[in-house]
């Protein structure tokens, strides 16, 4: 939680905003393995991170994609907004904006938040229960969306 003092002097606890990138190329999804110094160390996750001040959610998701994987991308669609205050494995009550992102080109190297970057074929994904935080649910929903397109974005 973020503690803020408002203009009338009141104090409130606010939630963090994060972005997640669902990136598919040639029937494979892009994952990063979380570095050992982060929460949920050694687990696979979608490229993701906190929104910086003065950036939009689409700018943030593309920045995080590049920082964690070295890939540049183009946002295709907002997939889901997850504002559930009771998300499992969360200590900060993040609100996440999840985007479908088209990979354009790999032009950089991953930062120190990723110990590994890998493309997993759809039929060989990590066990969804073992993906960091609750992003296994995001992947499960995306796989359903691939089979039969439904109206986006999903709101939770």
Descriptive labels:
single chain, 156 residues, alpha+beta, Nucleoside Triphosphate Pyrophosphohydrolase, eight-stranded mixed sheet, two-stranded antiparallel ribbon
Task: Give the full name of the CATH homologous superfamily.
Answer: Nucleoside Triphosphate Pyrophosphohydrolase
**Major sheet:** 8 strands, mixed
Q: Roughly what percent helix?
A: 10-25%
State the order of secondary-structure elements, H for helix, E for strand.
EEEEEEHEEEHE
Instruction: Indicate the CATH architecture.
Output: Alpha-Beta Complex
**Total number of distinct structural domains:** 1
* Tally of helical segments: 2
N- to C-terminal separation? 19 Å
How many strand units? 10
> Which fold name fills CATH's third level, the topology?
Nucleoside Triphosphate Pyrophosphohydrolase
Form type: globular
Whole-number average pLDDT?
A: 91
The radius of gyration is: 16 Å
Beta-strand residue percentage? 35-45%
Q: Label the structural class.
A: alpha+beta
**CATH C-level:** Alpha Beta
Low-confidence stretches: none
Q: What does this entry show, briefly?
A:
The protein is built from two helices and ten strands, in the order E-E-E-E-E-E-H-E-E-E-H-E. The chain has helices spanning 57-69, 135-147; strands at 2-5, 11-14, 17-25, 28-34, 44-45, 48-50, 71-82, 95-106, 114-121, 154-155.
Would you kindly provide a written description of the structure presented here, covering whatever features stand out?
By secondary structure, this protein is α+β, with helices and mostly antiparallel strands. The protein has one domain (15-155): Alpha-Beta Complex (Nucleoside Triphosphate Pyrophosphohydrolase). It is 17% helix and 40% strand. It has 2 helices and 10 strands; from the N terminus they run E-E-E-E-E-E-H-E-E-E-H-E. It has helices spanning 57-69, 135-147, and strands at 2-5, 11-14, 17-25, 28-34, 44-45, 48-50, 71-82, 95-106, 114-121, 154-155. Strands 3, 4, 5, 6, 7, 8, 9 and 10 form an 8-stranded mixed beta sheet that branches. It has a two-stranded antiparallel sheet with strand order 1-2. The longest helix is centred in the middle third of the chain and has 13 residues, at 57-69. The two termini are 19 Å apart.
